[in-house]
């Protein structure tokens, strides 16, 4: 008990203030900068400090936010035009109107074809041009290519950056959005472009509220590096005047995100009432909370399905793991059903790929999953040229046995998965050393390809299947999100076919083939989709629980009663 108290007290959680929501975050966001690939937690904060054209509600339905309504869609021979009109009320904090020039600038910033920006730029590749209305600064059209249903999210769900603040010198003014397809190499080597990107991705801009609190319902009011970020209601937010629109909310006066990586510490803080909201609660702890009648008098518990998949990733550029036979051998030591039962207490669904099995139309159930089979592992390792001597595997001519290092974020779920995997590998004569680090260290090691095996999770989506940022060969460059090195010309062509499919049947056929390649290459082993176990203080109501990460809408929270 004394140890737990010391651990929690070191977080410096302040006494609850009136109408403040305290949220547990399992790591401190490295950056809140839209121009740098960030974590989900960073994106969650960005959505509150910046606004998008459209709002995605808990039922995965889009509603107009900065835009007056949903866009008018005009079909062309080569794609679609999405015509938007910005609300007259939509303004920056300084009172200046948000205009089509800001839209065009934001998309140019995201699409910069630089190696440091490959994940973001590939995601927005289907937006080809922005056409501004010369007579009305609030009207513009986006020229796109692909499936119009997917394009609704792409065109409506990105943070709008203020051109006057981010590019006061007009460093990107000489480039049109259409140039990114025509002269990408020239843009990548353009001195003004490089200068712009280097300036706004420096360390001093990673958490700078002067730049990253601009049009949203909240502003960053306090930041304690590595520990907490506090958002305070934005008095100058344009949405304050939208009193008759029930989904445009900024109900809590303050929202504070406390970084508490260790599960045991976070659970103690929750039970002690130091935090109000915690999601992704490990299953064993969640079951104990369900049995705690005293806790349930103070907190509500929820477990909606989520679209996040947990995986084991192999660095296909690492020694031995560049051999598909060896990767397959290791896959045959993974019992997904056992992992779901042991780690999630059954709160999960095994999967063969990154598409949730609940999406039956797109999930390739024709693929036969690899089964746990230690004899098959032995067979494949032998076929790869390795030999087993005294319960260890050796490469011919080598004195040291084959061994791997597994890294993962400090997280009880990942720790339990690692223990199961390491134990099964040990039985098969394969040494795997599992090491946990803080989130920042793991991200850097993965980014630098300084690992053999890793465990993690990615947030998916119920309506979008754009895998370019995660699995394209472009994203496999150093620093990209494709850290396993997956991909070839065939898989790249399928990613493009998925993105640009004209109907659901075409997309389904391409997705089925893509899932087969992922399964065959096995650079990433997709373990399961889990339920999101959430606890929220009964001090709050109007929670908007949903399957979309994080599983609730904290901006909609209302006080259920007065706080003592």
Q: Summed up, what is this model?
A:
The chain has 564 residues and is α+β, with helices and mostly antiparallel strands. It is 32% helix and 21% strand.
Your description of this structure?
The chain is α+β, with helices and mostly antiparallel strands. The chain folds into three domains: 2-26 and 217-304 and 532-559, Periplasmic binding protein-like II (D-Maltodextrin-Binding Protein, domain 2, 3-Layer(aba) Sandwich); 40-204, Dipeptide-binding Protein, domain 1; 306-531, Dipeptide-binding Protein, Domain 3 (Dipeptide-binding Protein, domain 3). Helix content is 32%, strand content 21%. It is built from 21 helices and 23 strands. The strands form seven sheets. The chain has a six-stranded mixed β-sheet, with helices on both faces. A four-stranded mixed β-sheet has the order 1-10-9-8, with helices on one face. A hairpin with a 4-residue loop joins strand 4 (72-75) and strand 5. It is globular and about 75 Å long. Residues 1-9 have low confidence and may be disordered.
